[in-house]
Design a protein that fits this description.
heterodimer, A: alpha+beta, Dipeptide-binding Protein, domain 1, Dipeptide-binding Protein, domain 3, six-stranded mixed sheet, 30 strands, B: mainly alpha, MetI-like fold, about 5% strand
Amino acid sequence: MRTATIFALASLVAGCGDFDGDVDAPAPETGDADEAAVEAYYASKPDFFSFKTAGDLPVDLVWQNGGHLPDIGSPDAVKGGSQYGSIQDFPRTLRTAGPDSNGSFRAWLLDDTSVSIAHRHPNEFEFHPGLAKEWAVSQATKTVYVRLDPAARWSDDVPITADDFLYMFYFYQSPHIIAPWYNNWYGTEFTNITKFDDHTLSITVPNAKPDMDARVLSLRPMPRHFFGTLGEDFVERYQWQVAPTTGAYTVRQKDIDKGRSIALTRNKNWWAQSKKFWRYRFNADRIVLSVIRDTPKRFEAFKRGDIDMFGLNLAEYWYEKLPDDDPDVQAGRIHKTTFYNQSPRDTWGLWINTSRPLLDNRDIRVGINHATNWQLVIEKFFRNDYSRMRTSSDGYGAFSHPTLTARRYDVQAALQAFAKAGFGQRGDDGILVDANGQRLSFTLTTSYEGLKDVLTILREEAAKAGIEYRVEVLDATAGFKKAREKKHDIYFSAFNVGLEMYPRFWETYHSVNAYDQAFLPDGSVNPERKPKTQTNNLEMLALTEMDAMIDAYRASDSAEEMRGLAHKMTALHHDHASFVPGYVQDFYRVGYWRWVRFPKEFNYKHSEGAGQLFVHWLDTAAKEATREDDGTWPASIQVFDQFRPAVTE
Amino acid sequence: MFSLNPQTRRMLRRFRAIRRGYVSFLILSALLIVSLIGELLVGSRAIIVSYQGQWHFPTYTAFHPGTDFGLDYSFETNYRELRDVFRAANEGDWVLMPPVPYNPFESHASGDVYKPEPPSLASRHYLGTDTTSRDILARLFYGTRIALFFSLAFMASVYLIGIAVGCAMGYFGGVFDLLFQRFIEIWSNVPFLYMVIIVFSVIPSTFSVPVRIFVLLAVMVLFSWTSMTYYMRTETYKEKAKDYTAAARVIGASTGRIIFRHILPNAISTLVTFMPFTVVAAIAAITALDFLGFGLPPPTPSLGELLRQGTATLRTAPWIVGAAFGTLVLLLTLVAFIGEAIRESFDPKKFTVYQ
């Protein structure tokens, strides 16, 4: 308890900003008691944590190391320079687990910067080594064997060993981190970890899914020597501490200026800096991120050269604020690039809460689908840059439904559907009413302030089909909370989906995520079921048929069978009409000052942003030249469409 | 109703003599009256449609589906298109549109995409369009109307509560006064803007837009009535101690009669002086709330929302911020002039001789 108080005081002092000294936190004690508690935890779960010797390794394993894959990044890349960027909000914590840790800043600490056992090659989708030297997959035993690279080191120069992986399970299964999703994931999606020697381990999963290797290879160890035994004080104690990382960048305590800026510094002795796949990446020496809350202000900072890169995905910025004939663009000082990528698409659309009155009627939902004019939004607001989403699981290759498309805006079809549900008469204001005089009116909630105009357009168009959308714009936290508590009528949002082989259905469509006990044992609807909150089933979709398919899908180990099920589930979901597919963005575009250099092909097929893979580098000489005088260079407005799929429509 | 005493009448005469304030007052009153019939000036519904010899006045009636005028859709008629259709058909049918033929919600782009367009006489977007091609004049007009009536309603409510509580405190005094003073001291220390933001953010959105505006009004009144009470309390104390009040009480006048017939008319000059500034404060508050995104629910037209759009597009569409800023300046200047004139004409120094 006393330690906690001291830490709280220390962070308070640091927070005041007048404490310039290096406040590198003292390393937590790693006494015998600590070790004993962790060991005791391992001992208490002998089935999960196993210890064997190198001789116990199966002999028939086929080891692979992704050596045939091409390198990532450009050999022309030079190390050095400071990259300047911005963040919208100062991170609420520097922990990577526990409350508030799942913010956008975690990408800088963990998701985009740290090294896991192996990584998907951003062009080839196959795995290339990270912490592992090589690995072997045994489908029969549902186990992945890993040989760690002996050179791998934490950023504080402690070797990374199999113990850190054992500890990772201890860490994520611990109640003290207050992260139920992690507790559940690391407790149920893995069944065993075996240590053979310091650099050899195996991890077993419950189902031999087609991508079971991904589940294991994407694991990131936790530094046992840093955290030791976890206690009640975990959340406060590590709130502003930066744990050692496996990646090239780390945050020094003195670079944390709370509420204002935070900087990442490149580890000059990074263990992977000369390894294939890693040597041409993470080039900037420092990355300074300042807090700029307002997007227009951020753009002005970029225009002044205070920020190196700026995402220009919004049409307004691409066409109006930084048009091709902008003086800076024409003079070649700022480059504009569009890059078509391939990855599962964020699910922008209207999520209809089917547990609400009227919205539980399929005819109404079909009507809503026809009354929502996404075509107009895409055409006029997004200026045809985006395309219409077809189903809720686009972008998964063969796992996406081959033929289904979203229902089109069609006033007649919408009116017919509403009439079937009893709404056949227009009231004085043109909104449909039923026999009891009830108006066809729903609240359309969003937490994206910047997209409220989209909803206004939808509202005006929907009125033509006799339905009223009451637009409600909440701030990000409040909006998502409302939807997760299932209190919304219709929610406009998207789930960010990572690069995966096949779509997930359980989270969003399984009845266990809609209700506590949705159905009685005989399969009929439980009359006393209560909505289940804090899940991603925002449509409150509960269909026994869907449940059965999802369960089969989750248990299946055949890609063929899973594809069939995915198509069937997508079709059922489409038929249920509880989701109005919005739009997909199959590219990203970015403006950057000419001192930021990218590889010849600009970026990689499965990248989701220009800076995500850190393949860019900084040309400090060019920066000086550009900053010093108003010189002119050849303008650069490029489109990279090598990964754009052939147009299908 | 109490009648104005001669002193107050003299003040009003003086107010009329201060030209700048009086003219501002007339302009603002005219604006208010005009905005009441605003649908005839700014709106997408036609004023008159002459179809097959019959006249229709769609402005204030139930909506006319397109089928009413021989069009093939069942939703609200697009009267601008109807006018073109009639003109092309040349069968004697005609449509009279308002001078600004757009409503504040519809997107109307001259090109293929929604983007801000500069003011243009040809397209009848006299102040240009905003980021989603909505007519700025229409949004300004209705935004101002809402802001004006909102602030008048705000003023009325604040004064009603402030006068009632202040009078009661001053007239009854004693423990009642003491307790209420403490309560007001605490209440007035609650930060107004934050409270409005917090309270309004938890109001469920199932309410319709007018109801939400009313709730916003109620919340704002709830946290702003306190300042008025002090003036009223002091004024009441002062008047209560004067001989005429004592005389009224001796004659046997009831409490209500004394307060409403004797004290209030004499205290009114203080109140009137504050009125314009309350209006200014209310307009500023609602604009600030909208600017911060906590005010009127979208897509309600509002000055603050336009200002916010304007500051975000300062470089690319300066006419947005220009229009919003100009309107705000005009409005606040008018009110300030009125306030200045009222203060001067109600200045007690004009009527007392201390030398």
